[in-house]
Amino acid sequence: MNAAIDKLAWIYVKDGKILAVRSKGKELFYIPGGKREQGETDEEALAREVEEELTVRIIPETIKQEITIEAQAHGKPEGVMVKMTCYSADFEGTLTAAAEIEELGWLGYSGRERMSEAGRIVMDKLHEQQRLQR
Q1: From CA 58, how far away is CA 90, in angstroms rounded?
Q2: Residue 2: Cβ-neighbour burial (10 angstroms; 0-12, 13-18, 19+)
Q3: H or E element: which one contains 118?
Q4: Structural domain count, the chain
Q5: Residue 34 included in any domain
Q6: Does Membrane count among this protein's keywords (predicted)?
């Protein structure tokens, strides 16, 4: 069995909806974030990925680990898993789609089917915590 794909993700919930992003040419949304580069800490990788995708600056002292999940990796062969460590944090700037991101979305729990498998698991956990509205 291969090691899981190691990803970091930024959970930002506002008015009972989670911020989600969709890459160009893709159907499903995912939680913003990505893979760490050699030598990066989780916090450094999270801040870099969020700035690349959304043009905002994460405020480092507000970063808080939230949830870690494992799920089937979207678009990968059966059995290829993703381990996603999710953090919340405050930010500075205006959320703007950049790099490979085509669209930002605010998804309530009823929008769960529009999210990747890993994103659905995170949405389930946030819903259980009563942080997401329908």
Answers
A1: 6
A2: exposed
A3: helix 117-128
A4: 1
A5: yes
A6: no
Q: Cβ(65)–Cβ(58) under 8 Å?
A: no
Tokens of 98: 């950049």
Contacts of 27 (CB under 8 A, 6+ apart): none
- pLDDT, one tens digit per residue, over 64-112 is 999 999 999 988 999 999 999 999 999 999 999 999 999 999 999 999 9
SS3 label, residue 22: strand
Is the pTM higher than 0.90? yes
Residue 105 forms part of a structural domain: yes
**SS3 of residue 134 by DSSP:** coil
Which domain covers residue 42, as residue numbers? 5-128
